[in-house]
Amino acid sequence: MMRGTGLVNRLAMLIVAVGAAMVPFASLHAEDGYDLWLRQAPLSAAEAQAARPYLGRGVQVLAAMSPTVQLAVDELGQAGAGMTGLEPSTHPALVLARADRLESGGYPKDPRLAGAPPGSYSIRAVHSGRILITANDDLGLLYGAFALVRHVGATGTVADAEAFSAPAMPLRMLNHWDNPDGHVERGYAGRSIFDWWHLPEKLDPRMIDYARANASVGINAVVVNNVNARAFMLESRYIAKLKRLADAWRPYGIRVFLSARFSAPKDIGGLATADPIDAAVAAWWRAKADEIYAAIPDFGGFLVKANSEGQPGPQDYGRTHAEGANMLAAALGDRGTVVWRAFVYRAEDDTDRTMQAYAEFQPLDGQFASNVILQVKNGPLDFQPREPFHPLFGALPRTKVMLEAQITREYLGQATGIVYLAPLWKEVLEADTGRGGTVAQIVSPVGMTGVANIGADRNWTGTHFDQANWYAFGRLAWDPTLTSEQIAREWTALTFTRAPGPRDGIVRMMLTSRETLVKYTGPLGLAHLMATGHHYGPGPWVCDLERADWNPCYYHRADRRGIGFDRTATGSDALAQYAPSIAARWSDPATTDPRHLLWFHHLPWDHRMASGRTLWEELVNAYGWGVLEAQARQQGWTSLTPHIDPERHAAVAADLAIQLTEARWWRDASLSFWQSLHGLPLPVGAAPIPERLEAYKARTFPEAPGQ
Ligand code: BDP
User: Fold this and answer.
1) 382 is known as an active-site residue
2) How far apart are CA 94 and CA 126, in angstroms?
3) Atom number in ligand 1 closest to CA 404
4) Nearest to 37 by CA among 492, 451, 614, 676
5) In whole angstroms, what is the distance from residue 193 CA to residue 177 CA?
6) What is the torsional sign of CA 565, 669, 408, 472?
7) CA-CA distance, 218 to 168, in Å (whole number)?
8) Ligand 1: centre distance to CA 479 (Å)
């Protein structure tokens, strides 16, 4: 295959394809990314005139002036000032109305709002050119205001703004893996945004900007601390700090949750045990919950990582996960929720790690209290660039189940380059479990949570394009039927430009980006090939870690003859955890989704693929395309120079340069290692590997971030 610059040029054109004649529609000034998708770029003069009556502080309000309604008015006011740059209209034509107050203004009811879930809103054009935002609750008015501003920002006009929108999922949550000392586990955007040390007296104004950004995409719950939790965050002094945040975020509709360390009664409570059936332990948690609710009446509840990766839990006392979760659920009562994580695997258990969560939790179906939610990662392993959906989805019909996604890119390049994650989440949301629906259908009655990628960096997420992942997470939790492309187009228009050529070019760069990363890090269903600890860069050769299932060699099982993990009946039989229809399809390599081939099958290097290539040739080809696409994306971005403000353009260009270096490194190191096992030559035309395997193995990064 030709691997020259001509090909990269053509790929770049395909990926970006910005019309050569396009000129920027507005003058570009340097931007640092702090304003996210809420930057409210100026409209053209004609657009501004047309939008003026609908944006601005002078809206008609048919609702009691609560702090949340005030925010909705402020949001429209700010958009008016920022986007139109004009004095507010003396004849405002926008009405914000609670459904129960509509008739007092002489406006018709919207029947779609009857019985709609909290936060729903409708935007309607009514008589004399007015636009009416209606909701059953104040938060719906705020969401409706954000939606209208988003529509104008993305399209330049209020035309076609009419919409009825109801959140698909009640819980739309961020999990911060932030430690109280400011370090963020798996964080690549600087230190934590939470300044616990100076709370409660000092509230960083950024806490308000953060809440506003979340509310603008419908996020309504935040777990403020790491699942690997410190017990002292349950002490009274921290409850005072948390109260300050909860008070600040309440008008934005955000409820706070705490990660709770299961051994807290021992760690900070002076008890000799944390056994969940011990009456003193239950009483301690009950008193703790009462103390929290006295300060924070709408406290969301506890998130718990128990008996996993060294965390304490009910099994330390011979009790089940259900007994542990239910004890905490009783302490909260109907005031709140226990979110219990299903990410559990044991050191002493040598069954296929991807099977352990199912084995642990499926038999407990029906045993959890009604205010317990089981939080299940998208795949059965651990946030890899690609995994099949978790077999627990659909297997717990009598349990509340919520989806856990990772927004921070621990295993997907951390904060370099462009990797847009909506396609990954859509893949799992749309997966048919074969047991009563898609993953989206199963989790929608409960919710979705995302491990945040937010830090104290000026642009919040380390790279500008990672803002899109925060945005897309919120949008999908609100409406999982949105396409990755719709979300990318909206975000790009709001964040960079709504000029159609450059906008669509950026959208194409985003849509293919996760697949590019999969190609250069682990194609055809390979997973968990990263280096140890920090998880940065390739480490397929690693095979000497204390626990078998921490080693990449455990997952790829490559040797002289072949590669892949046999999870069929002849191997671990993980397939038996899926619905029979799916297990049957995936048990044969010929009918397995090719993207999961080596996840489920161990195959010889000369296995003939559908393409006619051998497995080895196919792998080389995939890695090669990953590198080419990274190169093409970099070139595509260069062609966008005239359309993007210089500061952000330069930052993204640097990110893409790093990504290309990393793509080459992953490809070269991985191929070099596979070759060391089987000794096969590279297929004709494949780029040579510049260094010896030993050189790749010798690279170490003890200082890599996020550990
Ligand atoms: C793993 C991360 C680790 C987390 C763990 C979890 O490497 O830092 O604590 O997930 O989800 O992927 O608990």
Assistant:
1) yes
2) 10
3) 11
4) 492
5) 11
6) negative
7) 11
8) 27
Confidence at residue 8, expressed as pLDDT on a 0 to 100 scale: 76
Q: What pLDDT does residue 18 have?
A: 56
How many Cα atoms sit within 13 Å of 67 on the Cβ side? 7
pLDDT at 293: 99
Residues with CB under 6 A from ligand 1: 185-186, 227-228, 305, 309, 343, 382-383, 410
pLDDT for the residue numbered 17: 59
Q: What is the pLDDT of residue 481?
A: 98
Atom of ligand 1 nearest to the CA of 305: 13
Q: Is 695 helix (H, G, I), strand (E, B) or coil?
A: helix
563 sits in the region (left: phi over 0; alpha: psi -120 to 50; else beta) called beta
Measured CA to CA, the distance from residue 474 to residue 376 in angstroms comes to 18
Q: Which of 343, 375, 384 to mutate to test the pocket of ligand 1 (most atoms within 8 A of CB)?
A: 343
SS3 at position 614: strand
**What percent of the chain shows pLDDT beyond 70?**
97
Ranges of residues in the chain whose predicted pLDDT is under 70: 1-5, 13-27
Domain ranges of the chain: 33-165, 171-496, 520-565+602-697
Return the amino acid letter for 180: P
Taking residue 364's Cβ as centre, other Cβ atoms within 10 Å add up to: 18
Query: How many C-beta neighbours within 10 Å does residue 614 have?
Result: 18
Please tell me the distance from the alpha carbon of residue 616 to that of residue 598, in angstroms, as a whole number.
12
CA distance 20 to 499: 13
DSSP assignments along 79-126, one per residue: HIIIII-SPPPSS--EEEEEGGGGGGGTPPP-GGGTTPPTT-EEEEE-
Is 456 within 8 Å of 193 (Cβ atoms)?
yes
Domain 520-565+602-697 in CATH: superfamily? Answer: Alpha-glucuronidase, C-terminal domain (3.90.1330.10)
- CA 473 – CA 505 distance, rounded (Å): 22
Which of 184, 309, 341, 378 to probe ligand 1 with, by most ligand atoms within 8 A of CB?
309
The pLDDT of residue 4 is: 56
Give pLDDT tens digits for 613-623: 999 999 999 99
Quick one: 207 exposed, middle or buried, by C-beta within 10 A (0-12, 13-18, 19+)?
A: middle
Q: Give the CATH fold of the 171-496 domain.
A: TIM Barrel (3.20.20)
pLDDT of residue 109: 94
CATH of 33-165, one of 3.30.379.10, 3.20.20.10, 3.40.50.2300, 3.40.50.300: 3.30.379.10
Phi-psi region of 491 (alpha: psi -120 to 50; beta: other; left: phi over 0): alpha
Residue-wise pLDDT tens digits, 314-342: 999 999 999 999 999 999 999 999 999 99
